[in-house]
Write a structure and sequence with these properties.
Blueprint (H helix, E strand, L loop, with lengths): L13 H20 L4 H19 L6 H18 L1 H4 L1 H7 L5 H22 L2 H15 L14 H9 L8 H23 L1 H13 L5 H13 L6 H18 L4 H13 L10 H10 L3 H30 L12 H8 L3 H12 L4 H22 L5 H16 L1 H4 L2 H17 L4 H26 L1 H10 L1 H12 L4 H16 L4 H18 L4 H14 L8 H10 L3 H11 L6 H7 L10 H24 L8 H16 L4 H19 L1 H5 L5
Helix pairs in contact: 1-2, 1-9, 1-22, 2-3, 2-6, 2-9, 2-22, 3-6, 6-7, 6-8, 6-22, 7-23, 9-14, 9-18, 9-22, 10-11, 10-16, 11-12, 11-13, 11-15, 12-13, 12-28, 13-28, 13-29, 14-15, 14-27, 15-31, 17-18, 18-21, 18-22, 24-26, 25-26, 25-27, 26-27, 27-30, 28-29, 31-32, 32-33
Membrane topology: Multi-pass membrane protein
Subcellular location: Cell inner membrane
Pfam families: DctM
Length: about 675
């Protein structure tokens, strides 16, 4: 259990603390009992988010500036209640706005734009502003971009009052699944999950060649199962892994690149992927578990790529791991905090049993809270038999969920809180829970405001039909040439990713490109995954590379240098989406069966192995430029998926590995001897 839970919230003003706590309490209550309509919940969710952003990011440091900023946030929250107070009237009017409706809609839209600018900079508001201008004035444009024209009230009605604007699908997902899973991750992190993952990874691979970098890969991969934010992973696990890698000989930029690349993989690692995965499931109207299944093999291959790359880099530089005696016992770490895995296992079981992400997230969060409080109470019980009895009784109490529903967890939690207060032996657990609620609300702000603002793009696209127009134009460019269409889609994702987060990047690009890829024969989930993957890779691609710049102050290296190294580490990650398009079995799509899946996985592993060797310049020993070119050429042939390329690629791979092993027998037989 953390011993200093106040540290993360010590600098938060008390007013912000209470508003953040109220937001988390509101979201938990809505998820558990859903007493309000979906649109009202979305509106109040956005109101809370805008209020918190204006309180945390004031426009000026002067007292007057802060007061004005807080006043704007208060206006946004009060206006968000408009949908609740006048819900029946708005439903009856069905889009026929009154002057008051229009004023409320305009003010809310302006405040959402300003909140996004303060939280995320100018790029996303600028792009959304262009779409808004297109909706207002697109009728005056020449050529195919011209639309039939829409009234101002129609634009405001769509964006501020409908379910296709700022309260559209992304906000629905943000106010339900995403917020719950962010809270779930916040509770587990505060309870010591980072320590558990790091100690387990250190004990398993810390003593191997290049062990510190492998610890980064494994711990970041584990964190990705509970936290879908790549940048958050960088600034949490990176605080430990980057200095450790530097201490054992990795260059600062390479250490930062490994951490950034590993952390971004959290967004594609089931069961709790990035927010985009929930939006994708809702957009495609498929169960979330289908998205997890499609992402599983590519996610594992992504981390295999990074693990293999750091292994080769360690061999090239002759880097050893930690002394075995300095590594923690992984099983002791697991024994100490095993109970933290139960909510995660329960979450996975519920998702794979077909329950909705919202239900699964609610139960997972409830189990986490119960286990944290239960563990705190057990610490005050000296007799082992009484500890066992307590856990058995607690399990039976939680079993009441099957009979009485989610109210059971509220009753059990209240009883545990009462026991903690009566015993006065463990107050850290209560402070930890409060901190997790507050920090969870803060962590949700960038995602929530992006989901709200990106609704402008969705609303204008659906209103004007511009996606169909642009889609037809791109199809004409890539007509009959799937690779060209994929290349254009990838470049679009990477370019947009320089200025906007993964969520709006995915929504915008998938709206334009996914229908095109579907028409060219790409399965629907694969086409959306292709866009999703390159939206993530944009955070590693120069010149912006948000994850790399987040690692920069920790690694004490320029963000651009870290980005270059991240591309070197994740080079095979750029190839995986192409392989999935040409061989959908990689994402468990199509009807090829187990044979097709095994074949494409083996082929992918071969390609990853040689691509990494070519990028690093090392396999069993150093590789010259000609050898590196041959290795990359062999890997490329395995990706192309044209007639006989697989046969040539496999033959070239086997020949290359055999030739290289022949020339470096001592490294092949003793790979840890460098």
């Amino acid at each position: 259990m953390n011993s200093s839970p106040r540290s993360a919230i010590a600098d938060i003003p008390r007013s912000v603390f209470w508003v953040a706590l109220a937001l988390s309490a509101f979201q938990i209550y809505m998820a558990a009992f859903h007493p309000l309509s979906s649109l009202v919940i979305r509106a109040i969710h956005v109101g809370f988010v805008v209020l918190l952003i204006f309180m945390l990011e004031p426009a000026a440091t002067s007292r007057g500036g802060r007061f004005f900023s807080w006043a704007l946030g208060g206006i946004a929250f009060v206006l968000s209640l408009y949908h609740w107070v006048f819900e029946s009237d708005l439903t009856a009017r069905a889009g026929m706005l009154t002057p008051t409706d229009t004023l409320v809609g305009v003010v809310l839209l302006i405040l959402v734009f300003e909140a996004a600018r303060r939280m995320m900079g100018w790029a996303l508001p600028f792009i959304c502003g262009l779409f808004l201008l297109y909706g207002l004035f697109g009728e005056y444009l020449p050529g195919m971009l011209q639309h039939r024209g829409y009234g101002f009230d129609q634009i405001i009605g769509t964006l501020s009052f409908g379910t296709e604007g700022i309260y559209g699908t992304p906000t629905y997902v943000s106010s339900t699944y995403i917020f719950l899973f962010i809270l779930f991750g916040a509770f587990l992190e505060q309870a010591g999950m980072i320590t558990l993952f790091t100690n387990f990874a250190m004990g398993m691979v810390g003593h191997t060649r290049g062990g510190p970098a492998k610890v980064s890969v494994i711990s970041s991969g584990f964190m990705g199962t509970i936290n879908g934010s790549g940048v958050a992973n960088v600034v949490t696990t990176g605080q430990f892994t980057i200095p450790l890698m530097k201490r054992f000989g990795y260059a600062p930029a390479f250490a930062g690149g490994v951490e950034a690349t590993s952390s971004m993989g959290g967004q594609i690692m089931p069961p709790v992927m990035g927010a985009v995965a929930f939006i994708m499931a809702e957009t495609l109207n498929v169960p979330y578990i289908d998205i997890c299944k499609a992402a599983l093999i590519p996610a594992l291959l992504y981390f295999v790529t990074i693990f293999w790359t750091v292994h080769l880099e360690a061999g090239r530089k002759g880097l050893h791991g930690l002394d075995k005696k300095d590594c923690p016992d992984p099983w002791a770490a697991l024994k100490e905090r095993w109970y933290l895995l139960l909510p995660l296992l329960g979450l996975v079981a519920l998702l794979f049993s077909g329950y909705t992400p919202m239900f699964s997230g609610t139960i997972g969060l409830a189990l986490t809270v119960v286990l944290i409080f239960g563990a705190a109470i057990v610490q005050g019980i000296s007799r082992q038999s009484m500890r066992y009895l307590f856990w058995v009784l607690l399990a039976f109490a939680c079993g009441g969920f099957l009979e009485f529903g989610v109210i059971t967890f509220f009753v059990v939690t209240a009883m545990l809180v009462a026991l903690l207060l009566i015993s006065r032996k463990e107050t850290n657990a209560l402070r930890l829970a409060v901190e997790a609620l507050v920090m969870g609300a803060r962590h949700a702000l960038p995602v929530a405001i992006a989901c709200a603002l990106v609704g402008v793009i969705i609303g204008i696209i659906n209103l004007t039909g511009v996606a169909t127009t642009l889609g037809g134009y791109i199809i004409s460019i890539g007509q009959g040439n799937l690779f060209l269409a994929l290349l254009l889609t990838m470049l679009t994702c990477l370019i947009l990713g320089m200025g906007i987060p993964t969520i709006p990047n995915y929504i915008l690009t998938s709206s334009l490109a996914a229908p095109i890829l579907l028409e060219l024969g790409v399965p629907l989930i694969v086409s959306h995954m292709f866009v999703f993957y390159f939206g993530i890779m944009a955070d590693l691609t120069p010149p912006v590379a948000l994850a790399c710049f987040a690692a920069s102050p920790i690694a004490k290296a320029p963000g651009l240098q870290i980005s270059v190294q991240a591309l070197r580490v994740a080079v095979a990650g750029f190839i995986m989406p192409y392989m999935a398009v040409y061989a959908p079995a990689l994402m468990l799509q199509g009807d090829g069966g187990a044979t097709a899946i095994i074949y494409i996985v083996v082929k992918a592993l071969l390609a990853i192995g040689l691509w990494g060797a070519g990028a690093i310049g090392y396999l069993f020993g150093p590789l010259g430029w000609l050898s590196r070119v041959i290795a990359i050429a062999a890997a490329t042939l395995l990706v192309v998926a044209a007639p006989i390329t697989d046969e040539i690629g496999i033959a070239l791979c086997v020949g290359f590995i055999a030739w290289h092993a022949w020339h470096h027998p001592e490294k092949r037989m003793h790979p840890e001897s460098e």
